[in-house]
From TrEMBL:
Protein name stated in the entry: Phospholipid-transporting ATPase
Binding site for ATP: D424, K425, T426, E559, F606, K629, R663, T744, G745, D746, R841, K847, N870, D871
P-type ATPase N-terminal domain location: 44-107
Transmembrane residue ranges: 303-325, 356-376, 928-951, 957-977, 1007-1030, 1045-1064, 1071-1094, 1114-1133
Subcellular location: Membrane
Organism classification: Eukaryota, Viridiplantae, Streptophyta, Embryophyta, Tracheophyta
GO biological-process terms attached to the record: phospholipid translocation
Top-level taxon in the UniProt lineage: Eukaryota
Binding residues for Mg(2+): D424, T426, D867, D871
GO CC, one annotated term: plasma membrane
Keyword Disulfide bond on entry: no
Ranges where the P-type ATPase C-terminal domain occurs: 893-1143
Active site residues of this protein: D424
Organism: Hibiscus syriacus
Length: 1211
């Protein structure tokens, strides 16, 4: 029989107490709702009725693109002309068609079209990729009812409200559906909602009992019904509606609703009615529009351009005023200009008009102050940087074959300025795999394998020992030996034995394996412990016919790990019926393997509120047992006086497990008499079958009566398997100064345990839990939450312990209030004071709202990372969105700015590429403004020197080549290849990353410094050359320099000064930098030589200028050398002073590497690395430090104890 056939025989609804009761029309009746928000009417299986109003609703077509055919041109142009420089050059291009322009219209329009067109083409390409993904989703196929009981395929986009669809195993639901029936006879189906809330645990959905007969295609031939329900809304966890069928009205709730983008699992098929389609579906209601993202550097560039534009206006006004004065008072005396026969532009009688006309000319003439080529150069550099990210072999995942991908190059430098990371949990941090590692039974600890935290602590302590000078005293050497003994106890030698890995089971201890537990003093307690693991659960076994072993479909990975552990210990759960579970026990006192049946009498399942699960069973001897597992705090409160025999030892073990980063549960039991159980069961059945609002409370009270006077048997410790390298990555990111928030749809307990596993939480960290009280009065709830937030903030403020760390834990219900406008600032103020923040049970929209709050409230750069459709909102909302190209589709990747295959690659993406890209772009932009100011202001000086005539000192070809050829390639090499330190050093010293968030290389001090340097260089280039050539002979024949000789000499000095300046700026040289820098200088001389060799009609006054005039003149070469040195002296002086007296971190590392101290003195290098290790409150390092402090305290106590008692006297 097939797996589905076996499972279909189970009426799984009978396993559930609180959540899986099916409402009947006669029990609960219909929901009563009127007014706005409840207007949707769905006419089931009547598609023609939904083709016209008022029942015509939105189609099932979805679009996640930023543009469409009609909006691309206006929206893209709007984006481009948000850039101030582009707006300026648009105005200049328009004016270039007038006679006032000093340049031709073509020379002004062509660069603008090229720059804007290139950027728009890149935007179009990125949006095209989103469009293709939408087409793929919209064209997915699903079976729908065509009529007369016949089903056929139809694309998702053509589905309509009211259609009957048949979804098969492992398919996604195409729209929000009402579940009618399933392959199971009682209408149960399993749903995976990872794309919605991040959870991989399967959810159980159930159909109404009245629709269960609709379980085959022919049954829908004459099916009709009406659904009246709430209007489309983003709430994933609520639904209110009524279903009218067969003259009865049935209440609907979320347990009958199958949401779009969730997946059908372990169920052959389901039938459903389409309720919400397309952008009306709940997952799409949680989606946010694709925003236009610009980096902080780019936004700041606008302000710099405002400054430069102000300078441009100022010098243009000075030039126009000077021109007007010259025109009015001096032009009448310049007879050669024929002042009486001129146009308005040179009319001495209308100087104001002449000045206004000259203002427009000056604005265009001095346009070289505004670097239009900056944007093109940045685009080229960012594309190169993105290529390096894409090709980084260290971010290539061999398992999936997925490399890192920069999906947009606009935000490369933003990677180096991140302050807060907001991360999804499931699929991002975790593999959602639990491994049974240790246990405590009857006060005895079992399990010798170390957790990742213990191993890291031992390794770090060993490193610390090596770094210290242990030869200073004998006393310290003895402490070192004691510490080594401690380390040996942490890492067991048994771990060296290699065994084939068992998924979910990493336990090692010969005392319990292979039936050896029978030889333990408390064998009966151990057997009961294993039976609890094998019985107390809701899982269903599946026989793997290839291997002959059983696998388990469980609602949580913890349950799966417990069942695998029970199997490995010899207690294999292999069968479940409606009323019993069967366990194959390989070991017993008699030595015979037996199959035992345990009849299930009642099951009280786990909820986040109860924090425990209980099953009441009758064994083969007729004894009734209550078996319970749950959080230790909950179990310990319910122990009897006689049941606390192992409490002290178990508590000590639980603390040790928690310190080792393990997830723990306590196990307990009690024996029940027949009369005691019968009396309680009568009360339980009454509560279970009651109707009304008090039903759930009555069930809880009855369960509470039974779950008391328990006997503690032991505790489990499982290790939550994180994705490879996650703890180390989080530790490096924490040392880099980054704050990490976890936003997950998981329940609180799961999220907290993950927090411990990845070291966002640790033992001793004070947890601040903000929860909403149960009240219908919204204002009462808000006041209570605000009071909790205020008290927590005050507690943190009054904390005096320097090692104290706080963690904020909040759920989605509380966030719904905390994100209100009048409370969100208080919530954010508390959150930023905490070392880590974990938000649980949050919807996709709440993820986006929290991200927006952090982004706007702190004003700092945020990065969101996730792997599912439920993360799309926050990925779009954050300054930088990173998608993980995992197994859950490509929605997150398609919405992201960068994609990586594993969370661990985020370390290299930020700490290496982010650090490099930020410094490269910052230095490149600063240098760009420097060179344009140094060049552009010389035009103003000469124009003023020449009577504000509008005359350029440079030949037009010089000006065209300046940005395009002669200075562009060195800048591009700076932006693409510069490295202050190598990638290995970036990873060894993650604190270097802090330079980015602190914005050390692009603050106003740096920017104004470079602008000042440009101003200084322009003054030196112009006035030093004027001083040299104005009154002196230039050639051997006594001739003085003309304008072309002076202009060419000045231009030569600029080329040399600017290229030498960029060489001094660089820290890392390859042959490419040498080629571009010195090649640009050589290119200038080659151009001057070749251009001068052309005929005079082409070269004009530059004809033979280099060969006949400049090259033979020593003053030309001396002036070039003198100006170049003088221009660069201030920068050299500044950088020398800084390195000597106020060095930055990378300066020190550069010197160590240059003098090879890292090779010659390993101890010094290790000491420097240790000093650079930031003292953090989260991460592996913080946890290890806490563990080290704890072990050192133990050692000190042992040492003091040995000194007090002293050695025993010898006889």
């Amino acid at each position: 029989m097939t797996r589905v056939g076996i499972r279909a025989k189970l009426r799984l609804s009978n396993l559930y107490t609180f959540t899986c009761l099916r409402p009947r029309a006669t029990e609960e009746g219909a929901h009563s709702f009127d007014g706005p928000g409840y207007s949707r009417i769905v006419l089931c299986n009547q598609p023609l009725m939904h083709n016209k109003k008022p029942f015509k609703y939105r189609s099932n077509h979805v679009s996640t693109t930023k543009y469409n055919v009609f909006t691309f041109l206006p929206k893209a142009l709007y984006e481009q002309f948000h850039r101030v420089a582009n707006l300026y050059f648009l105005g200049a291009a328009i004016v270039s068609f007038s006679p006032l322009s000093p340049f031709t219209a073509e020379s002004m329009v062509a660069p603008l079209v090229f720059v804007v067109g290139l950027s728009m083409a890149k935007e179009a390409l990125e949006d095209w990729q989103r469009f293709m993904q939408d087409i793929k989703v919209n064209n997915r196929k699903v079976k729908f009812h065509k009529g007369e009981g016949v089903f056929g395929n139809r694309s998702w986009k053509k589905l309509r409200v009211g259609d009957v669809v048949k979804v098969e195993k492992d398919q996604f639901f195409p729209a929000d559906l009402l579940l009618l029936s399933s392959s199971y006879e009682d209408g149960i189906c399993y749903v995976e909602t990872m794309n919605l809330d991040g959870e991989t645990n399967l959810k159980v959905k159930r159909a109404l009992e009245v629709t269960l007969p609709l379980n085959e295609d022919e049954a829908f031939k004459n099916f009709t019904g009406t659904i009246k329900c709430e209007d489309p809304n983003p709430s994933l966890y609520t639904f209110i509606g009524n279903f009218e069928y067969s003259d009865e009205v049935y209440a609907l709730d979320p347990s009958q609703i199958l949401l779009r983008d969730s997946k059908l699992r372990n169920t052959a098929f389901v039938y459903g009615i389409v309720i919400f389609t397309g952008h009306d579906s709940k997952v799409m209601k949680n989606a946010t529009k694709t925003p236009s993202k610009r980096s902080k550097i780019e936004r700041k560039m606008d302000y710099i351009i405002y400054v430069l534009f102000s300078i441009l206006l100022m010098i243009s006004f000075i030039s126009s005023i000077g021109f007007a004065v010259k025109t009015k008072f001096e032009m009448p005396h310049w007879w050669y200009l024929q002042p009486k026969n001129t146009d308005d532009y040179y009319n001495p009688k209308r100087p104001v008009l002449s000045g206004i006309g000259h203002l427009i000319t000056a604005l265009i003439l001095y346009g070289y102050l505004i670097p239009i080529s900056l944007y093109v150069s940045i685009e080229v550099v960012k594309v190169l940087q993105a290529t390096f990210i894409n090709k980084d072999i260290h971010m290539y995942d061999e398992e999936t074959g997925n490399p890192a991908q920069a999906r947009t190059s606009n935000l490369n430098e933003e990677l180096g300025q991140v302050d807060t990371i907001l991360s999804d949990k499931t699929g991002t941090l975790t593999c959602n795999q639990m491994d049974f590692l240790k246990c405590s039974i009857a006060g005895t600890a079992y399990g010798v394998r170390s957790s990742e935290v213990e191993i890291a602590a031992a390794q770090q302590m060993a490193t610390d020992l090596e770094d210290q000078d242990v030869e200073r005293s004998t006393d310290f050497r003895q402490k070192g030996k004691q510490l080594e003994i401690e380390l040996e106890s942490v890492i067991s030698k048994d771990e060296m034995v290699l065994k084939p890995p068992i998924k979910g089971f990493s336990f090692q201890d010969s005392c319990l394996m292979e039936g050896n537990w029978l030889n333990e003093p408390n064998a009966d307690a151990i057997m009961l412990f294993f039976r609890i693991l094998a019985i107390c659960h809701t899982a269903v076994p599946e026989l793997n016919e290839e291997t002959g072993s059983y696998t388990y479909e469980s609602e949580s990975p913890d349950e799966g790990a417990f069942l695998v552990a029970a199997r490995e210990f010899g207690f294999e759960f292999f069968k479940r019926t409606q009323s019993s579970v069967f366990v194959h026990e390989r070991y017993s006192a008699s030595g015979q393997a037996t199959d035992r049946e345990f009849k299930i009498l009642n099951m009280l399942e786990f909820t986040s509120k109860r924090k425990r699960m209980t099953v009441i069973v009758r064994n083969e001897e007729g004894q009734i047992l209550l078996l319970c597992k749950g959080a230790d705090s909950v179990i310990f409160d319910r122990l009897s006086k006689n049941g606390r025999l192992y409490e002290e030892d178990t508590t000590r073990h639980l603390n040790e497990y928690a310190e080792a980063g393990l997830r723990t549960l306590a196990l307990a039991y009690k024996k029940l008499g027949e009369s005691e159980y019968s009396a309680w069961n009568d009360d339980f059945q009454k509560a279970k079958t009651s109707v009304g609002a008090d039903r759930e409370r009555m069930l809880e009270n009855v369960a509470e009566m039974m779950e008391r006077d328990l006997i503690l048997i032991g505790a489990t410790a499982v290790e939550d398997k994180l994705q490879k390298g996650v703890p180390q990555c989080i530790d490096k990111l924490a040392q880099a100064g980054l704050k990490i928030w976890v936003l997950t749809g998981d329940k609180t307990e799961t999220a907290v345990n993950i927090g411990y596993a990845c070291s966002l939480l640790r033992q001793g960290m004070k947890q601040v839990c903000i929860t909403a009280i149960n009240s219908d009065a919204r204002e009462v709830v808000k006041e209570d939450i605000l009071s909790q937030i205020t008290k927590a903030s005050q507690m943190i403020k009054l904390e005096k312990d320097s090692h104290a760390a706080f963690a904020l834990i909040v759920d989605g219900k509380t966030l719904a209030f905390a994100l209100d406008d009048d409370m969100k600032r208080h919530f954010l103020f508390l959150a930023v004071q905490c070392a880590s923040v974990i938000c649980c049970r949050v919807s996709p929209k709440q993820k986006a709202l929290v991200t927006r709050l952090v982004k706007e409230g702190t004003g700092k750069t945020t990065l969101a990372i996730g792997d599912g459709a439920n993360d799309v909102g926050m990925i779009k909302e954050a300054d930088i969105g990173v998608g993980i190209s995992g197994v859950e589709g490509m929605q997150a990747v398609m919405a992201s700015d960068f994609s990586i295959a594993q969370f661990r690659f985020l370390e290299r993406l930020l700490v290496v590429h982010g650090h490099w890209c930020y410094k490269r772009i910052a230095q490149m932009v600063c240098y760009f403004f420097y060179k344009n100011i140094a060049f552009g202001l010389t035009l103003f000086y000469f124009e003023a020197f020449a009577g504000f005539s509008g005359q350029s000192v440079y030949v037009d070809w010089y000006m065209l080549l300046f940005n395009v050829v002669l200075t562009s390639l060195p800048v591009i090499s700076l932006g693409a290849f510069e490295q202050d330190v190598s990638s290995e050093i970036c990873l060894q010293f993650p604190a270097l990353y802090k330079q980015g968030p602190k914005n050390l290389f692009f603050d106003w001090y740096k920017i104004l410094g470079w602008i000042g340097n440009g101003l200084y260089s322009s003054l030196i280039v112009f006035f030093l050359n004027i001083f040299i050539f104005y009154d002196q002979a230039f050639c051997a024949g006594g001739q003085t320099a003309d304008m072309d000789a002076l202009g060419t000499t000045m231009f030569t000095c600029i080329i040399w000064a600017l290229n030498c300046q960029i060489a001094f700026t660089m820290s890392h040289f390859t042959w490419i930098q040498y080629l571009f820098i010195w090649g640009s200088i050589i290119m200038w001389y080659l151009f001057l030589f070749v251009y001068g060799m052309l005929s005079p009609t082409t070269s004009g006054n530059v004809y033979q200028l280099l060969v006949e005039v400049l090259a033979p003149a020593p003053s030309y070469w001396m002036a070039t050398l003198l100006v170049t040195i003088t221009c660069n002296l201030p920068y050299l002086a500044h950088i020398s002073y800084q390195r000597c007296f106020h060095p930055l971190d990378h300066h020190i590392i550069q010197e160590i590497k240059y003098y090879k101290k890292d090779v010659e003195d390993q101890r010094m290098w290790s000491r420097e690395r240790s000093k650079a290790r930031e003292k953090t409150m989260i991460g592996f390092t913080a946890r290890v430090d806490a563990k080290i402090r704890q072990l050192k305290v133990k050692l000190q106590r042992k040492h003091l104890s040995s000194e007090i008692h002293g050695p025993a006297p010898s006889s």
